[in-house]
Amino acid sequence: MSLTSLELAKAHLRVEHDGEDVLIQVFIDSAEDSVNKYCDREEPFEAFPDAVQSAVLLIVGNLYENRESMTVGQEMHVNRTIAFLLDPYKELRS
Predict the structure, then answer these.
(1) Which residue, 19, 31, 65, 80, could crosslink 59 as a Cys pair with Cβ 3.0–4.6 Å?
(2) Is 6 in contact with 28 (CB distance < 8 Å)?
(3) Alpha-carbon dihedral 64, 61, 57, 16, rounded to 10 degrees
(4) Tens digits of pLDDT across the chain (94 residues)
(5) Which residues contact 93 (CB under 8 A, 6 or more apart)?
């Protein structure tokens, strides 16, 4: 079950119709999975701190706006804002 509600994601995306709810939910699930993996969490977040929730929404927005496949030669950039929001929540392992 997602920690990010569909309603919150749709508000972030400024989507008022229900026609893309399934797609947006897939993006939410993918973003949350990516955040947990990026933070190298042994256990997934039980609740998102505000900064992590913001990163999830930024990823959802990126997936929504760039849903088409990339073309050859197009560069992929890591969003520094997302890294800035998530880096403090990375688990350090020895």
Answers:
(1) 31
(2) yes
(3) -70
(4) 899 999 999 999 999 999 999 999 999 999 999 999 999 988 999 999 999 999 999 999 999 998 876 556 556 566 899 999 999 999 876 5
(5) 40
Question: Among 61, 10, 55, 58, which Cα is nearest to 35's?
Answer: 55
What is the residue-wise DSSP string for the chain? --SS-HHHHHHHHT--SSTTHHHHHHHHHHHHHHHHHHTT-SS--SS--HHHHHHHHHHHHHHHHT-SPPPTTPPP---HHHHHHHGGGPPP--
Spatial CA neighbour of 83 closest among 39, 41, 42: 39
pTM: 0.85
Question: At 3, which amino acid appears?
Answer: L
